[in-house]
Design goal:
This protein is of the alpha/beta class and about 350 residues long. The chain has one domain: Alpha-Beta Barrel (TIM Barrel), CATH 3.20.20.80. It is built from 12 helices and 12 strands. Helix 4 runs parallel beside helix 5 and helix 6 packs parallel to helix 7.
């Protein structure tokens, strides 16, 4: 009897208890804290990153280490490096593209070495090769060749770090209300190479269109057809596509689909930003912690881990010597830490 049959015969709630020994999803439980965050050396959408991109250009290896330490001290265990290249320049030495001109000679080495030291696990994003803004990049054979080459190079150069925990496929899927055949092919092509060059690494995707997902039998079959270990769904609150009052229902339905699927775990990608002006055409700024807290409450019962987009730019420890973002980021950091350490953190 496989896991799907087991759940069908035993019942969803009882199966969850039998498999994990924990409270079934949806039951009363403390609100989950933030497990980790997306991470970057330069924000790919320049207008959005105006408050932190200039600071990151100037970060030394010591500042990158200090930033990793700061994030670890905030209780975050996972970081997702968005890209090893963007705008046809790379963040490591490769024949694919020229390198970015950064103050730190090898930022990937700097952050992975720091993560080794402070117990943080990195997912390494295999992007952006080709035009990151194009919907057809996942089908571009030249970009595919570059992605596969970069994976081999990155695994060879940085794979010895114990913090190199997994891979992330950053050309995001639009679930409308299912995954496209092209996206499934993109995922499985990269996953095949990943299993070859670093077999123990976990594989994660973070699709959008969460509110549109139709979590039915076809959707479960698509989950089973993709070689991924984790799906971290965007809650899409920051981009104004979903309301905090709606996301719990979306994640509940998706959790039920994942409980029927054979492999992929369900995580959340919670957006802790808002746009200063027009969506996608203005700077990202930190959301209020009141909103962020409600976002965490909404998805907590349905997911195993909560990641955020993103710590860099949106959160900074007050007085940090590696500050990157607007002054409001220090308030979000302080408000979150105060809540995290409070005795009555809440049950939603």
């Amino acid at each position: 009897m496989d896991r799907r049959d087991f759940i069908a015969n035993l019942g969803m709630g009882a199966a969850a208890l039998a498999l994990t020994g924990k409270t079934a999803p949806g039951a009363s439980a403390p609100v989950k804290g933030i497990s980790g965050s997306w991470f970057e050396f330069q924000h790919h959408a320049t207008v959005e990153g105006v408050d932190w991109n200039p600071a990151l250009v100037q970060f030394s290896a010591e500042q990158w280490e200090a930033k990793i330490k700061e994030i670890a001290e905030a209780g975050m265990r996972y970081l997702v490096l968005m890209a090893t290249a963007v705008y046809y320049r790379a963040f490591y030495r490769t024949s694919i593209y020229p390198r970015w001109k950064l103050a730190c000679e090898d930022p990937m080495e700097a952050v992975l070495a720091a993560a080794d030291k402070y117990g943080v696990k990195f997912f390494i994003g295999v992007g952006f090769y080709g035009d990151w803004e194009s919907d057809t990049t996942i089908e571009d054979p030249e970009a595919e060749k570059d992605r596969l080459q970069s994976m081999t190079e990155v695994a060879e150069r940085y794979g010895h770090h114990r913090s190199f925990y997994g891979w992330y496929w950053p050309d995001e899927a639009y679930i409308h209300p299912y995954y496209s055949a092209a996206f499934i092919r993109y995922v499985n092509t990269l996953s095949r190479r990943a299993r070859q060059v670093k077999p123990e690494a976990r594989i994660m995707i973070a699709p959008y269109g969460t509110r549109e997902a139709r979590a039915d039998d076809r959707y479960v079959r698509q989950l089973d057809a993709m070689d991924v270990d984790i799906v971290a769904y965007q809650d899409e609150v920051g981009v104004r596509k979903s309301k905090v009052t709606e996301t719990g229902a979306y994640f509940e339905a998706l959790r039920k689909a994942h409980d029927r699927a054979r492999k992929a775990k369900i995580w959340a990608d919670v957006e802790i930003f808002e746009f200063e002006g027009e969506v996608y055409k203005s700077a990202l700024v930190p959301a209020s912690f009141d909103r962020v807290r409600r976002q965490l409450e909404a998805v907590s019962p349905w997911v195993e881990e909560i990641l955020v987009y993103q710590y860099l730019g949106m959160m900074n420890k007050p007085g940090s010597n590696c500050f990157a973002g607007s002054p409001a980021s220090a308030k979000l950091y302080s408000d979150y830490r105060a809540w995290l350490e409070s005795e009555d953190r809440g049950r939603g």
